[in-house]
């Protein structure tokens, strides 16, 4: 019988900080598709794979970190979780809190959350507060809140989040047989690039500053090499490119509209220790990459996710992509979360035709 995926904790328990006795809160996250993108290969001269994290239960990579964060919260006995969010973290926290029977408080930047994500937090029963400020303001509030009240913080400053998220790197190595030459992903609060770098390192038998224990050095390595980490930010929200926090971040990719990333030092280490880079791409380039992914690869992602492919294309244009390099781009969230941005500027007011084959054939121009 074919193996049925059991969620990232059950699949990778020996490399995660949980025992067999721990009750796992899971929606069977992970095990996401790694799709070969021939058209992107033709555009770049590399061997390109897309890691489709929008295929997770709530439609983003956050579920990997949320299964581990919420499992730990339940183990410790806290009844309420809280997060700041540009949308996806809140959607995931709300769903896993619902599964575990916990309360969930969500602090959001007012007016800057894609409709699909807001819908998710609401239907899963989270308690929502909209702040007149940006994500960085929300994170500051929720950090103070969770210090002063018996509420568990489930943003990626909670180390269990990165533990779960590192499993995406394990899956890539398991599928490709070793680490790729280059891994590209969008960077916002900078947890995910830190988690991938930890995952690649641990699978190769090393720890990083984000590691929670030494188990990686005891377990048999599954990778012989490490990738270069290429991070991509939106030009209006690119603190790593500026070298300092940005006060008023702005981008169409609202998920990465972040000016003061929490995992700054881990991300800088991932970039430098891997001899990689973090660059900025324009909103236009992000939306172009979103269209290319949809039209040429068959994958509909939200704008922030397309930043990884925008970064790949920019690197190819400037001659930085080594020929035949094996490259994995993570696309972090599902396009259905933000249809308004994807459809902006497109004519979607269809004039109905008569209900006949002839009228349909005429209208289609066949
Ligand atoms: N892509 C998407 C779709 C995201 O939602 C996020 C972060 C990122 C990329 C960046 O990842 O923060 O680990 O560097 N979203 C967070 C949220 C901030 O609240 O949902 P990161």
UniProtKB/TrEMBL annotation:
Where pyridoxal 5'-phosphate binds, per the record, is at 88, 188-192, 332
* Top EC class of this enzyme: lyase
Q: N6-(pyridoxal phosphate)lysine is carried by which residues?
A: 62
Q: Could you say which EC number(s) this protein's record lists?
A: 4.2.3.1
Which InterPro entries did the record assign?
Answer: Ser/Thr_Dehydratase (IPR050147), Ser/Thr_deHydtase_PyrdxlP-BS (IPR000634), Thr_synthase-like (IPR004450), Thr_Synthase_bac/arc (IPR026260), TrpB-like_PALP (IPR001926), TrpB-like_PALP_sf (IPR036052)
Q: Which GO terms describe its molecular function?
A: L-serine ammonia-lyase activity; pyridoxal phosphate binding; threonine deaminase activity; threonine synthase activity
Domain Tryptophan synthase beta chain-like PALP, by residue range, is 25-333
Name the chemical reaction catalysed here.
O-phospho-L-homoserine + H2O = L-threonine + phosphate
Enumerate the Pfam families for this protein.
PALP
Q: Which UniProt keywords apply?
A: Amino-acid biosynthesis, Lyase, Pyridoxal phosphate, Threonine biosynthesis
So, what pathway does this thing act in? Amino-acid biosynthesis; L-threonine biosynthesis; L-threonine from L-aspartate: step 5/5
Please list the cofactors this protein needs: pyridoxal 5'-phosphate
- Write out the similarity annotation: Belongs to the threonine synthase family.
What does this gene product do?
Catalyzes the gamma-elimination of phosphate from L-phosphohomoserine and the beta-addition of water to produce L-threonine.
- Entry protein name: Threonine synthase
Q: Which organism is it from?
A: Actinobaculum massiliense ACS-171-V-Col2
Identify the taxonomic lineage of the organism of origin.
Bacteria, Bacillati, Actinomycetota, Actinomycetes, Actinomycetales
